[in-house]
Design a protein that fits this description.
The chain contains nine helices and eight strands. It is of the alpha/beta class. It has two domains: 1-30; 49-270, Alpha/Beta hydrolase fold, catalytic domain (Rossmann fold). Strands 1-2-4-3-5-6-7-8 form an eight-stranded mixed β-sheet, sandwiched between helices. Helix 3 (124-140) packs across helix 4 (156-164). The model has no long low-confidence stretch (mean pLDDT 94).
Length: 272
């Protein structure tokens, strides 16, 4: 009886082991499908109210990126580069971009490789290259680094943080930033060795100290995707001058209400 029990127990353990092993293999092979969601669409039909020009930006690895460019006055106003998150298209950000109409700011928003009809497949290094190409494109238009503001939204904070290191940008804005993708993945996969499996790590907490530009960090306490504690930690690590817009009610996609818009305008004003 005891021998039979041990045999059944061993078989059960082996079944669990093989299931766990195949789960690990699946997550490793398809992790970028789980991280990047170019086809997710929560576009509500918002109409773009700000004047934009659709542009194409070429990367060093010969991928053309779609961008929307809004130019008011390159000489007198700073120019913001908007790095969006891991899901959706440029249209999903229209409700945010419309608020820039009443601000003294130019902006360029780009779609990542594999998003909004762009060729290529997204990856950490690929997104860094996309972001760098957007900066270079603006410089070719006559916008110096000192007049550029990097704005990262969610996953885009990883790109903004990477590219802002040891540079002299006018400012950096991080909306719902995470400490690292490893930390974020551990929340959803607590029993998976994500630190060993994860390809795209986006280690913001290691890089934030290398940013010497003025920085604004925005996060909501009700964020159910990136915990508020991560945004708070990034703020604590960041160098001065630093500013925060923390709210008690915002989820991951922050509401562009009067208070957030005021925080942006105040930050832009502080850079002049």
């Amino acid at each position: 009886m005891l021998i039979k029990f041990r045999k059944n127990l061993l078989q059960f353990i082996l079944i669990i082991f093989f299931i766990y092993f195949f789960v690990l293999v699946f997550l490793y092979l398809f992790q970028r499908n789980l991280l990047y969601h170019p086809n997710e669409n929560n576009y509500q039909g918002d109409k773009i109210l700000v004047d934009i020009k659709k542009v194409k930006i070429s990367t060093s690895d010969n991928i053309e990126l779609l961008g929307w460019y809004h130019k008011k006055n390159l000489k007198d106003f700073k120019t913001l580069i908007y790095f969006h998150g891991n899901a959706g298209s440029l249209e999903n950000r229209i409700h945010k971009l419309n608020h820039f109409e009443n601000m003294n700011i130019n902006f360029l928003i780009i779609a990542w490789r594999g998003f909004s009809g762009n060729d290529g497949k997204p990856s950490e290094q690929g997104l860094y290259e996309d972001g760098k190409s957007a900066i270079d494109w603006l410089k070719q238009k006559g916008v110096p680094e000192k007049n550029i503001i990097l704005y990262g939204e969610s996953l885009g904070t990883g790109v903004a943080t990477q590219l802002a290191q040891n540079k002299k940008f006018a400012g950096v804005i991080l909306e719902t930033p995470f400490t690292s993708m490893i930390d974020a993945a551990k929340i959803f996969y607590p029993y998976i060795p994500v630190n060993l499996l994860l390809k795209d790590k986006f280690e913001n907490y290691k890089k934030i100290k290398n940013i010497n530009s003025p920085i604004l960090i925005m996060h909501g306490e009700k964020d159910q995707i990136v915990p508020f504690s991560m945004g708070k930690k990034i703020y604590e690590i960041a160098n001065e001058p630093k500013y925060s817009h923390f709210t008690k009610y915002d989820n991951h996609m922050m509401e562009y209400d009067e208070r957030l818009v005021f925080a942006l305008k105040s930050f832009f004003k502080s850079l002049n």
